[in-house]
TrEMBL record:
Residues 90-292 form the PNPLA domain. A motif (GXSXG) lies at residues 132-136. InterPro entries: Acyl_Trfase/lysoPLipase, PNPLA_dom. A motif (DGA/G) lies at residues 279-281. Gene3D superfamilies: Cytosolic phospholipase A2 catalytic domain. GO terms for molecular function: monoacylglycerol lipase activity; phospholipase activity. The active site is at S134, D279. This is Patatin. Its EC number is 3.1.1.-. It comes from the Eukaryota. The lineage of its organism: Eukaryota, Viridiplantae, Streptophyta, Embryophyta, Tracheophyta. Keywords: Hydrolase, Lipid degradation, Lipid metabolism, Plant defense. A motif (GXGXXG) lies at residues 94-99.
Amino acid sequence: MVLHSLYTNLSNQIKLNLRSLKRWCSSRKIEHGPINWNANKVGNLSVARIKDKSLTNLYTYKQRYLMSTQMERSKSAIQPPVLGNLITVLSIDGGGVRGLIPAIILDFLETELQRIDGEDARIADYFDIIAGTSTGGLITAMLTAPNEEKRPLFAAKDIKKFYLQKCPKIFPQDRNVLTKIVKSLTGPLYDGKYLHNSIRKRLENIRLEDTLTNVAIPTFDISTLQPTIFSNYEMKEKPYLNALLSDICIATSAAPTYLPPHHFETIHEGQKHEFNLVDGGVAANNPTLIAMGEIAKQLIRKNSDFHVPQTLEYRRFLVISIGTGECKKKWKYSAKEASKWGLLGWWFNANGSTPLLDIFTQSSTDMVDIHLSVVFKALDVEQNYLRIQEDGLERTLSSLDRATKDNLEYLIEAGEGLLKKKVSRVNLETGKFVPYSEKTNEDALKEFAKQLSCEKHLRDLRSPRPIKANPEPCIMSETKPNFGAFEKPSINV
């Protein structure tokens, strides 16, 4: 009788919340228009046009979610997608010191979210999964690792400062070209000790399971010649992936010829698992598809965090993919030049770059963007996918280890300038980014921030946990959403 009464009360509360939500959205003009509760198909851009579930279905979702064995979300800063309308994805490319470019972009996005929802807002509060490769993996860890208050260890604005302080010591610029060539023939250019110590000092004993939202950080295991993806979702099937976040960051940033491969072990139920890893860029320098693939696997496994039916609906994805810049102003290499290269030439160029590594990483990076651009356009939801990438870096300044003061300042300027550029997509014929919208990246990020905020308000309203405020979805200036970690509801019988 007690349980029956509990579920009856819960059902009534859900219905009351939904009726209130409909009244709010019907009585107020919202940026993207009032929610169309009877819409039959998904529109181009906003939460407002996505078909909502009936009260009966929503109750079923929430009841199943409450009773599911997968309720262990006590460390998550974001409510599950089953309580909302979208699946939100953030992806950050690899690129060494060029990580300063996404640092600038992410600072802008978080500042915009704070303008809407208050200064406590953090990027980890809005994305169901954040994926990062190499330097992007490090940024992912910085955004999602918890501090003592179970809030993100770093604000987005802190990442720029971290890179400016640490990069010159991680990649000391005290060698001339000849010395670097000799060094590259006998081992990695840098020993990585300063990088390793810095990461371990900040991340300490934080493990993959501790991140404040789901992450996906690819690496490549040279002992098995297979990619290894450190993912919270995948960890449920493969508990041995629950490694120290510091080990994961060191591994995903171990770029061949630049930094040494990383070896470590994890132990689960007395069984030892060994890893021999190098840079995730070898497998996926642009990890956007990795992140979406992790979501797809959860749909296949019928994870109760997601809506039914369990199908991969690209229309429900809201994706931001951020690059670290590349050089396409002029041809970086030519066939005439490369025809004279031997083993050394392919691995080390006179301008300090590594042609073979550049080719591997850039080809996979652009192919992911091309694929997603085509898919989202074919489904008529191309504005749900935003790729921000700079393709005009100077050839001599685009190396991932050029940590001079002048180059770091140049990368900051490149990131700030990228915000003012029009939204662009890579052209398959030329390889260059061409504008396809009159909006700037800055404008697009502002629109995405509004959608992310609306989605968070909606999930908080439908959440079974207590909400500190009484948020009105999409009424940005009146209320603040709940930024507390997810609390497992207690049932006292």
